[in-house]
Amino acid sequence: MLWHITKREVYDNMTSLRFSFTVILLVLLMVINAVTFMTRGYKKNIEEYRNRTAGALDRMRENCRSVYNLILNGPGDLYKEPGPLTFCADGEEENIPDRAVGRSGGWGGSWSSNGFNYSAEGFWRMNYPGFDRSLKNIMPGYLKTDWAFIIGGLISLGKFAGAFISVMLPLSIAILLNLLIINVSGAVELSAGCWGRIGVIVLISAVYVAVFVCLGIFVSTRCSKSSTSLLILLLIWVVFVVLMPSILGSISSGLKKVPSADEISQRKQTARDDLWKRYEARGLLKVAPSREKPNMVALKLWAECLNEEQQTEEKIEDENLNAQLAQIQVARQITRMSPTAIYRYALESLSSTGFERHREFIANVRAYRDRFWEYIKSEDRKDPR
After folding, report:
1. Which residues are CB-contacts of 168 (< 8 A; sequence separation ≥ 6)?
2. How far is CA 290 from CA 112, 170, 294, 322, in A?
3. 33-72 pLDDT, tens per residue?
4. In angstroms, how far is the first alpha carbon of the chain from the final one?
5. Long-range contacts of 321-327 (CB under 8 A, 24+ apart)
6. Using one digit for the tens of pLDDT, what is the confidence trace for 307-366?
7. Rounded Cα–Cα distance for residues 146 and 149 (Å)
8. How far is the C-alpha of 82 from the C-alpha of 265, rounded, in Å?
9. Could you give the C-alpha distances from 221 to 2, 226, 300, in angstroms and in order?
10. Closest CA to 385 of 291, 265, 318, 305
């Protein structure tokens, strides 16, 4: 009996005008998604990434000619590789920093002692381009033609498209067409791991669609008029899919304050001024680390000063970045009250895009930074002079 009822429901839906409209809409959006991904998305980003990385490696090779250059200039720019599954979930990648910057910085100046002129330069340090302070550009975007929008923003009106099978059938056709276009184009080579993640994404999408279909059926059974159920479902969709993520994201951005760029700059300057006052009191500018006849006392004092300056500024940078990441994390936790936000975050995680991937990138950069310093120190120890 249940099977006959199911077949009848599927037949009625598939022969309706809304089913045809759903097929056309989904196929059109998935084709747009695939074409955009191939022409302006991944292909352009990966070429730019390769060119930038090649340039950064060339500069690194130049610096590797001496330990002195490495100490001053560091590793250069470190770029984040574009993810191959951005067509599934964009993750607002264009609004998230795509690099970390390891370059010369800190104090630099000259002074005179005993009739000679001397100069000094600070060590390299790692800097991280910041996020948008208002969080507006890094919270989930709901007008992207990625899978997260097509499925999360449109198919959640499952009541209007029929029962679950009637929704999943045109969705499956659209997804297969999308993957066929991307795979045949050769714009990206999807590994076995990528195909596995796509399979999980489809499974999660099916669960997401099923939830909204059940919600539609529940509301329909509680309403005597179809117009009333339609209005209620539309209201639920607008609140949970459109309004709630945006409003909660705006509210949560003010719960955890992050220092402004000017405040960070002032904090660095204050720390630097305090440091130089302490070392001037110890006679820093009264001794000169001459190369002709090295003054070991002066060398050690200057090394201690420049090391502390670099570590102090890097600590401020790390604390500022941690505050930014914590602010975004709080906002994301609050917006998880919306089922659409939960769905989008799940797709971003599986697609290796968005905020979580950037946090992983930052962790890798910091580990690389520490290894880079250890390499410099080990190379420096090889020369007893």
Report:
1. 206, 209
2. 12, 77, 5, 40
3. 787 777 766 777 888 889 999 998 988 888 888 888 888 8
4. 90
5. 321/128, 321/130, 321/362, 323/256, 323/258, 323/259, 324/130, 324/131, 324/258, 325/359, 325/362, 326/256, 327/135, 327/253, 327/256, 327/257, 327/258
6. 888 888 888 888 888 888 888 888 888 777 777 788 888 888 888 888 888 889 999 999
7. 6
8. 31
9. 18, 10, 81
10. 291
**Amino acid (one-letter) located at 112:** S
Between helix 339-351 and helix 296-335 the angle, nearest 10°, is 140
Token pair for 97? 């920093």
Specify whether the CB–CB gap between 162 and 209 falls below 8 A: no
- Which residues lie below 8 Å from residue 18, measured CB to CB, with a gap of 6+? 160, 161, 162
Is-contact 27 177, C-beta < 8 A?
A: yes
Structure-block tokens of residue 349:
């995680």
User: How far lies 39's CA from each of 27, 82, 275, in Å?
Assistant: 18, 15, 52
Per DSSP (E only), the strands in 38-189 are 76-79, 99-103, 108-113, 116-121, 125-127
